[in-house]
Write a structure and sequence with these properties.
The structure holds two protein chains of two kinds. Chain A has helices spanning about 15-30, 30-70, 95-100, 140-145, 170-175, 205, 215-220, 240-250, 265-275, 280-305, 310-315, 320-355, 365-395; strands spanning about 75-80, 105-115, 120, 135, 150, 165, 185, 190-195, 210-215, 230-235, 260. By secondary structure, chain A is α+β, with helices and mostly antiparallel strands. The longest helix of chain A is centred in the N-terminal third of the chain and has 39 residues, at about 30-70. Chain A starts with 16 loop residues before the first helix and ends in a 10-residue tail after the last helix. Chain B is an alpha/beta fold. Chain B has helices at about 10, 70-75, 100-110, 125-130, 140-155, 170-180, 200-215, 225-230, 250-260; strands at about 30-40, 45-55, 60, 85-90, 90-95, 110-115, 185-190, 220-225, 235-240, 240-245. Chain B has a six-stranded mixed sheet with strand order 6-7-8-3-9-10, sandwiched between helices. The longest helix of chain B has 16 residues, at about 200-215. Chain B is globular and about 50 Å long. Chain A: It is a multi-pass membrane protein. Chain A: It holds the Pfam family MacB_PCD.
Chain lengths: ~400, ~260
């Protein structure tokens, strides 16, 4: 009782973070249902945004995984059109060997188009091609394409000189061939099916082909030995360099007569479009988030009105205006933060359900989680600021009026 | 009575004016001088009130409703500022303090007891009392230790874990008193502390207030009930915003007010 005689300087004590959290959560603890309802708006908004971003990221991841498996380091080389005649200019006979000698090239394969059709038997008209082309293929083609055989074996030096054929998967389906050993009819001759290729997303033209050996093509099917398409694979780092050298290597005199394309470019473009989320849905999530923020602000204003006795009491036991303000901003932050966490969990779960049901990998980008949570904190601060300032300006004498 | 003088400190400490007050001298906890409070619209709730409360006093501020005693309580409790006049609480000139410093003054020097208790529902008696120390800067553990001690002091040592709805009205008010005294304030302001209680609980609460005063607390009880006021050593009667009778100052009050406030 004598402390005042020493006249200690008056200094408002600071609250510890734990005490701030404690006072900030007091209102929530006493009214759990209201907390759930007002956090729900925020949760729905965040869940929408997270799932929109998550689902597109999952789709993109799927395409990227596919790309990764197929590789982006393959180039496809085809003859260009002659400037004057518009005809294809055939590539040199030794083009495969030339490309193989470029620094950085790891695998080269070539195909040569043959003007024949492939049928189940001679009874079928030659005009019914079924959209299947017959091509001569080098042995290195399968490795270069990173292709797999669904069944049977690939051409080798021996089988390449005999009437044997490997069918692309589409070609096999169209011909009704399902196992090696069956025979198909090409240019007056039956060829034995050695194997059937698996799906080749980067080279659909091979999937629709019947492939015979380079040797048998020349000896029996009138192949002139000029490849019509080259496939080249190099180390990832060398792709650019190889790209610039290929045309000049294949045709040093008129390099512009050689087309060099990157078949993975299409897939990359697909990955980019899959990754672009639907702006409409994202906007919808944003609107939900905004409405959620308004809900939190509303709850806070009601909370301040209801608790003016508590505010008066706190002022009478020594709370400063700043501490009252802090209490209500904390409450608002907790409210929206809770909604944000619930929304992130909901959105991630929705993405998970969608991904599992459509066979996609489950990806929820970390930036979306962080951004979503950050957005709720911003909303919580903005929504809580006005009610908190109102609370701090309330007259402390209110507590003394009997409730 | 020297307590009515605007500068009792100087008067009490003899010729050496600026020297600190000797330890045992009863220094005033509250010094109001010429306090006037006008509300917007020209209503004057207080008109030139002088009031001095010394350490260790137990007094009643009594008056009918509308007399201005609530306004006086707000001003003594530093919850409101006067329109004119000076207020010093525990030696601090309230008029010169910022809101932040006033808050600290309330946290360190003043305890409030309300007619409606204003306990926080859903938390234990001890937590309610510890709330009274929330803005004191003490650690959480220390606040809980002191809260338990304060509850024992008001005779509720066996009710630490009880929540407000598990307590009777008298017990609730005792919890509220424990919350007010837990910080060992220089001044305890009790606003109609028995107003919401039945007779026997009210008596018990008044007995507790007497006991706390015996232990050294300075207590001002604001009431409209003359019966309660009579039980206290000093009565200050308020009517129409003026002190009409102060048992400590006897008959001097009226003349002094006229003299001081022309």
């Amino acid at each position: 009782m004598t402390a005042h005689r020493q006249r200690p300087t008056l200094k408002a004590a600071r609250l510890t973070p734990r005490d701030i959290l404690h006072t900030g959560s007091a209102g929530m603890r006493s009214r759990p249902l209201r907390v759930v309802l007002s956090a729900l708006g925020i949760a729905i908004g965040i869940a929408t945004m997270i799932s929109v971003v998550g689902i597109s990221a999952s789709s993109k991841e799927k395409v990227l995984q596919e790309l990764d498996k197929l590789g982006t380091n393959m180039l496809k080389i085809t003859p260009g059109d002659d400037l004057l005649t518009g005809k294809k200019i055939p590539m040199a006979e030794d083009a495969v060997g030339r490309v193989a000698r470029i620094d950085g090239v790891e695998h080269v394969g070539g195909t040569g188009l043959l003007e024949h059709s492939v049928r189940r038997s001679e009874k079928i008209s030659e005009d019914i091609t079924g959209g299947i082309t017959v091509q001569a293929a080098t042995e290195g083609l399968l490795t270069t394409l990173r292709g797999q055989l669904r069944t049977g074996t690939w051409l080798n030096k021996a089988t390449g000189t005999y009437p044997a054929v490997v069918l692309g998967d589409v070609a096999a389906d169209r011909l009704g061939i399902s196992r090696p050993g069956q025979r198909v009819y090409i240019d007056g001759q039956y060829f034995t099916v050695l194997g059937i290729l698996d799906d080749l997303p980067l080279s659909p033209e091979i999937a629709r082909s019947a492939l015979v050996g380079w040797g048998i093509g020349k000896s029996m099917l009138g192949f002139d030995g000029h490849p019509t398409t080259l496939y080249e694979r190099s180390a990832d780092a060398e792709v650019g360099k190889v790209h610039s050298l290929v045309a000049r290597t294949v045709d040093p005199q008129t390099p512009r007569n050689v087309n060099v394309t990157d078949p993975s470019a299409g897939l990359q473009a697909k990955a980019a479009t899959e990754g672009a989320f639907s702006n409409l849905l994202l906007g919808l999530g944003g609107v939900a988030l905004l409405v959620g923020g308004v809900g939190v602000a509303n709850t806070m204003i009601i909370s301040v009105l209801e608790r003016r006795y508590e505010i008066g009491l706190r002022r009478s036991i020594g709370a400063t205006r700043g501490q009252i303000r802090g209490q209500f901003v904390t409450e608002s932050l907790l409210l929206s933060g809770l909604g944000g966490v619930a929304g992130i969990v909901l959105g991630a779960a929705a993405t998970g359900v969608y991904a599992t049901s459509s066979g996609l990998p489950w990806v929820v980008p970390l930036w979306a989680v962080g951004g979503g949570f950050g957005a709720t904190l911003v909303i919580g601060t903005v929504a809580g600021l006005y009610p908190a300032v109102r609370a701090s300006r309330l007259s402390p004498t209110l507590a003394l009026h009997a409730a | 009575m020297s307590g009515a003088s605007p500068h009792p400190r100087v008067a009490d400490s003899g010729p050496v004016a600026p020297a600190p007050v000797p330890d045992r001298a009863p220094a005033p906890v509250v010094e109001l001088a010429g306090v006037t409070k006008e509300y917007p619209g020209g209503v004057a709730a207080l008109r030139g009130v002088d009031l001095t409360i010394k350490a260790g006093e137990l007094l009643a501020i009594v008056g009918p409703s509308g007399s201005g005693k609530s306004t006086l309580l707000h001003i003594v409790g530093t919850l409101d500022r006067p329109t004119a006049g000076s207020v010093a609480i525990a030696g601090h000139d309230v008029g010169r303090l910022s809101d932040r410093k006033l808050s600290a003054l309330r946290a360190q020097h003043i305890g409030f007891v309300f007619q409606a208790f204003h306990l926080v529902p859903g938390i234990s008696a001890r937590d309610n009392v510890a709330e009274g120390l929330l803005y004191s800067g003490l650690s959480r553990a220390e606040r809980h230790r002191r809260a338990a001690r304060a509850l024992e002091r008001v005779g509720l040592g066996d009710r630490l874990k009880h929540r407000p709805h598990e307590l009777s009205g008298g017990q609730k008010q005792r919890v509220a008193i424990a919350r007010a005294v837990v910080g060992e304030p220089d001044l305890l302001l009790a606003d109609e502390p028995t107003g919401a209680l039945d007779t026997s609980s009210g008596k018990a609460v008044m007995q507790l207030i007497h006991d706390l005063n015996q232990e050294g607390a300075t207590i001002a009880v604001i009431t409209h009930d003359t019966e309660i006021a009579k039980m206290l050593p000093r009565q200050v009667r308020i009517r129409d915003g003026q002190v009409v009778q102060d048992s400590a100052a006897q008959g001097h009050v009226r003349t002094r007010i006229r003299g001081d406030a022309p």
